[in-house]
Write a structure and sequence with these properties.
- The complex is a heterodimer of chains A (375) and B (500).
- Chain A has 375 residues and is α/β, with parallel strands linked by helices.
- Chain A has twelve helices and nine strands.
- Chain A folds into three domains: 137 residues, Isoleucyl-tRNA Synthetase, Domain 1 (Orthogonal Bundle); 82 residues, Class I aminoacyl-tRNA synthetases (RS) (hypothetical protein PF0899 fold, 2-Layer Sandwich), CATH 3.30.2320.20; 64 residues, Helix Hairpins.
- In chain A, the strands form three sheets. A four-stranded mixed β-sheet of chain A has the order 7-6-9-8, with helices on one face.
- The longest helix of chain A has 28 residues.
- Chain B is α+β, with helices and mostly antiparallel strands and 500 residues long.
- Among the domains of chain B are: 156 residues, HUPs (Rossmann fold, 3-Layer(aba) Sandwich); 156 residues, Alpha-Beta Complex (Isoleucyl-tRNA Synthetase, domain 2), CATH 3.90.740.
- In chain B, strand 1, helix 2 and strand 2 form a beta-alpha-beta unit.
- In chain B, helix 3 crosses helix 4 and helix 9 runs antiparallel to helix 10.
- The longest helix of chain B has 19 residues.
- The radius of gyration of chain B is 28 Å and the shape is elongated.
- The two termini of chain B are 53 Å apart.
- The chains are: A alpha/beta (375), B alpha+beta (500).
- Chains A and B meet through helix 1, strand 1, helix 2, helix 3 and helix 7 of A and helix 1, helix 2, helix 5, helix 9 and strand 15 of B.
Chain lengths: 375, 500
């Protein structure tokens, strides 16, 4: 490399290249350099057979900041091919939707699309910055998170037509358009699957292949909508947690009341309602009694119990749990009253028992409060 | 078309790679767009893909595919280098397995075998890169021994020789006794090894006195031609002007004085073996000492080794210690950690050896390349490598570019006599003849009177031109390709390659 620069100046009076990207050395998990004699190097061809070239490409870049050694582990390639499958399944989902030409775009579709377009632009700016500084692994990670978390886990959920329903044509077309932008920024990392999906979307002639298409243009984006979504996603997670804890099936609608202390934006209410399966979203000024509750920032959310859960069953469940916890507390306290135990056992063991006692007392209090709310 | 539930990577990858190839998307021609150029750091022609290549080439493909999408005229030039020492070693081993000794072959016969080997095993690595999805412009594939690539190398050698940058020198070089060739400093890997430090007593001529020297290489005492003491070292005032006797060979050698000897280090008496140690060579030059080379090219001892002649240096080390112990001249043996240079290619312990080799003066040439990096005209990413680069460039030594190998570009120096200076340097034998006739004032000289230097050039003497020669910028410095694609954008490589 140094000699190439020397020859460049001697024979062209000019540098041979502008940037020299020095990669790390590929090592094994024990930090040993990979070598034939150590036999610790996987055969790259075998890896590509197993995980696909796209999967191995992603695997190689997942942890390779410039100049730092890459501790190679086959799991990285597994993760790479997992990403490829995620992209594939996302496309299968979209491809399976039935389009309805006359259907109006729903409010949640509109807000979801606006949000994702902004999120895409924000990430694109980050990606450009990473590329500009030759942080290729970081550019991959930003792309990976955008596609996996924002696109697959959030966006597609938001625009997914309810079971048995069709998707509005306008929404579908816009979904395809953002998908195409995704494919463009994915292409350098996973050229094969990106071209496959690109060509499956519609028939394209040879001048329209993804490999020679156009990198997305940077556009101004709405920071506020991204912030508002982040807040909404917290609310949705809160609802999901309550549903899980209380065994409320996602098929059953629930009501949600909001004490909007934060004066949070209502833009995402349609999305919250859709992803939370909320029948009615009310803004209230007083706390609601006898409801399940959670917080997002300083906003308080209430889910009335009536209708949401079977009160009888819940009381029985809580009573049972209270009984068990009280019994547990008794046995722990019995131990702690035993002087021979307290004086004889190692300090750590005693401390552990005291912690158990404290935990049990706290739990009993919560259970009692929950029961009081139900009665 | 219904989508498969499971993504079939292999089938889909083949399909699209073929489609891209059929539609020539990887190919670049000079046009009005801005170019984005990457030249592959050429891998060994007969090598196979390893994990380092995978990382490296994935990065290059990511950069070039993005550039293509951004609308640049993206051009990624692939190719391989001839890997002089590695390939020659493989061919020699293969011939040996077939019962053929390289020594019994003419240069032409050997090269035929080497080309056959190259055609058979060459380019596998490039096919493997296609599996990875590498979007190289395969129509531009180059090999460092392609005719125009070799012609570029020869042209540059002649040019640098005529500018006074290349010279022939009798110098201490790194000798690989297994490959039987010299190596550049960068091809030597230093390893920390445990050895012994032997304290040996030499008789002082004409007295009952002895002096003690310490050495890690007792076999080389047979090449000693002086003992050196520091003139300020009062302990050895009585030795001034005297002579010492080397055990076993009983050679009488002068005791010289030089402040180079560290009074605090070792015994204060230094054995001087100009043929087998670089520092000793410098002392020898200064004090006009005799040079006694005790080794053959394969690391066995020659006739100066007396009864050890024909035995390997490491065998002799054991045996000579035994003999010296029996003679009672070993005063003590200590274990000792020291750095041992080994060959990057063969792993053999490197022997410092004096021989006639070709060198390229580096100091002056390196200056613009050093400035370019310090001024960030060339960016090293990450920047932590700038200091390493600076240190190397500021301390760069002349580059030994000749190799005692046949696989590579043969040095274009033609000898017309037996004298060390009886040669001319020219791009071909016709030109050489003309120059030789002029130089000797002898018009009767014929091409048959000329003998070309048998050595080949270091592979890096080809590779260093790569970003220029792949666009034929050496032979035709003003062609439209080199003017368009050069300077290239990125070079992606492993840090080990920094100094090559």
């Amino acid at each position: 490399m140094a000699r190439m620069i020397i020859a460049g100046y001697e024979y062209r009076n000019e540098k041979p290249f502008t940037n020299v990207y020095l990669t790390g050395i590929v090592r094994d998990k024990q930090r040993r350099k990979m070598s034939k004699s150590l036999g610790n190097s996987p055969d790259p061809i075998d890896l590509m057979e197993t995980y696909g070239a796209d999967g191995v490409r992603v695997g190689m870049l997942l942890s390779s900041p410039a100049g730092n050694d890459l501790m190679f582990d086959e799991d990285l390639c597994k993760q790479g091919s997992g990403f490829v499958n995620k992209i594939w399944n996302a496309y299968r989902l979209i491809d399976g939707w039935e389009v309805c030409p006359d259907k109006e775009q729903s409010q949640s579709d509109v807000i979801a699309l606006n949000w994702y377009k902004s999120k895409f632009q924000k990430t694109l700016a980050e990606i450009e910055d990473h590329y500009g500084k030759y942080r290729i692994s970081d550019a991959l990670m930003a792309t990976y998170k955008l596609v996996w978390d924002d696109f697959c886990s959030w966006f597609l959920e938001m625009v997914k037509p309810p079971y048995g329903e069709k998707i509005a044509k306008k929404t579908y077309e816009e979904v395809i358009s953002v998908l195409e932008d995704n494919l463009k920024i994915l292409h350098p990392f996973v050229p094969f699957i990106s071209e496959e999906i690109w060509q499956h979307i519609t028939k394209r002639d040879t001048s329209e292949a993804l490999i020679v298409s156009e990198w997305p243009k940077a556009q101004p984006f709405d920071e506020k909508i991204i912030k508002n979504f982040d807040f909404a996603s917290e609310v949705i997670s809160g609802i999901r947690t309550i549903r899980k804890e209380k065994n409320i099936s996602f098929k059953d609608t629930i009501e949600l009341s909001v004490l909007n202390n934060d004066n949070a934006s209502k833009d995402f209410d349609a999305v919250i309602s859709k992803l939370g399966n909320i029948s009615e979203l009310n803004y209230i000024t007083e706390k609601l009694d006898g409801a399940l509750t959670f917080r997002a920032k300083s906003n308080e959310y209430f889910i009335p119990i009536a209708g949401a859960i079977n009160v009888e069953e819940e009381i029985a469940k809580l009573t049972e749990e209270l009984k068990y916890t009280e019994g547990f507390l008794k046995s722990v306290q019995g131990k702690l009253k035993n002087e021979r135990f307290v004086n004889g056992a190692p300090e750590k063991v005693v401390a552990l028992e005291k912690q158990k006692e404290a935990d049990a007392l706290a739990k009993i209090e919560t259970l009692k409060a929950s029961l009081a709310g139900l009665k | 078309m219904a989508l498969e539930a499971k993504y079939n990577a292999k089938q889909i990858e083949n399909k699209w790679y073929n489609y891209w190839m059929e539609n020539n998307y990887f190919h670049s021609e000079v046009d009005e767009r801005t170019p984005y150029t990457i030249v592959i750091p050429p891998p060994n022609v007969t090598g196979v893909l390893h994990m380092g290549h995978m990382l490296n080439n994935t990065l290059q493909d990511v950069l070039i595919r993005r550039a293509r999408l951004q609308g640049f005229n993206a051009c990624w030039v692939p190719g391989t280098d001839h890997a002089s020492i590695a390939t020659e070693a493989k061919v020699v081993a293969k011939l040996k397995a077939e019962g053929i000794d390289k020594a019994n072959l003419s240069r032409e016969e050997f090269l035929e075998h080497a080309w056959e080997w190259t055609h058979k095993h060459g380019g596998i690595i490039l096919e493997q890169l296609k599996k990875l999805g590498a979007s190289c412009d395969w129509e531009r594939t180059k090999f460092t021994m392609d005719p125009e690539m070799s012609a570029s190398v020869i042209k540059v050698f002649v040019d640098l020789y005529r500018k006074g940058n290349i010279y022939r020198g009798y110098r201490m070089v790194n000798w690989d006794p297994q490959a039987k060739t010299t190596l550049s400093d960068e091809e030597v890997i230093y390893e920390e090894k445990q050895g012994n430090l032997y304290y040996l007593n030499y008789k002082v001529e004409g007295s009952e006195d002895t002096l003690t020297i310490a050495t890690t290489r007792p076999e080389t005492i047979l090449g000693d031609t002086a003992i050196c003491i520091n003139p300020n070292d009062e302990r050895f005032a009585h030795l001034r002007g005297k002579k010492a006797i080397v055990p076993i060979c009983n050679r009488v050698i002068p005791i010289i004085e030089d402040e180079y000897v560290d009074v605090e280090f070792g015994t204060g008496c230094l054995k001087v073996t100009p043929a087998h140690d670089e520092n000793d060579k410098a002392l020898g030059d200064k004090h006009n000492l005799e040079i006694v080379d005790i080794l053959n090219d394969d690391g066995t001892l020659n006739s100066f080794g007396l009864h050890y002649e024909g035995k390997d240096r490491f065998v002799v080390r054991k045996e000579i210690v035994k003999e010296l112990e029996e003679m009672g001249v070993v005063s003590k043996i200590e274990t000792h950690m020291h750095k041992v240079g080994t060959s990057e290619r063969t792993g053999a312990v490197i022997e410092p050896k004096l021989s006639d080799q070709w060198f390229l003066k580096m100091k002056e040439l390196a200056q613009p390349a050093l400035d370019a990096v310090l001024e960030k005209d060339v960016n090293l990413v990450p920047e932590k490598f700038i200091n390493t680069y600076r240190h190397w460039m500021e301390n760069v030594r002349d580059w030994n570019i000749s190799r005692q190998l046949w696989w590579g570009q043969q040095i274009p120096a033609y000898f017309y006599g037996d004298g060390k200076e009886d040669f001319v340097v020219a791009e071909n034998i016709e030109e050489a003849l003309k120059l030789a006739q002029e130089k000797t004032n002898n018009n009767a000289l014929k091409t048959s009177d000329l003998t070309q230097d048998p050595d080949a050039l270091d592979t890096w003497f080809s590779s260093w031109l790569w970003p220029i020669s792949v666009f034929n910028g050496i032979l035709e410095p003003d062609n439209k390709e080199i003017n368009y694609y050069y300077p290239t954008n990125d070079l992606v490589t492993a840090p080990e390659i920094l100094f090559f």
